[in-house]
TrEMBL record:
Single Gene Ontology BP annotation: nucleoside triphosphate catabolic process
PANTHER family in the record: INOSINE TRIPHOSPHATE PYROPHOSPHATASE, INOSINE TRIPHOSPHATE PYROPHOSPHATASE/HAM1 PROTEIN
A GO molecular-function descriptor: nucleoside triphosphate diphosphatase activity
Protein name: Non-canonical purine NTP pyrophosphatase
ATP-binding as UniProt keyword: no
Alphabetical keyword list: Hydrolase
Domain of life: Eukaryota
Amino acid sequence: ALNGMPGPYIKWFLQEMGNEGLYTLLAGHSDHTAFCQCILGFSAGPGSEPLLFIGQTPGTIVPPKADGGWGWDAIFVPDGAEHPFSTFDLEAKNRISHRAHALRQFVDYL
């Protein structure tokens, strides 16, 4: 929706703007799609080419209504869900989170 912003700077965006401010940035856009991404890197040691395992969870940014969770969990609804991440219990979130996707790829590699 914002051409890749805030990307890796999400922590600082949220510290300065909060979820309300991040949602407000989308006010002039019809596209509210977004994705969470985790990149897990692994190297077998010196001289070994590092491997990257990329996990993504696509979704949509919604108006802040729920509290809780981490970061932007209160305004991020994963595709296929009806409610923001902040309403998920830890087990449910870990099944579909971007971190879980990257970690599963890494475990499969091992």
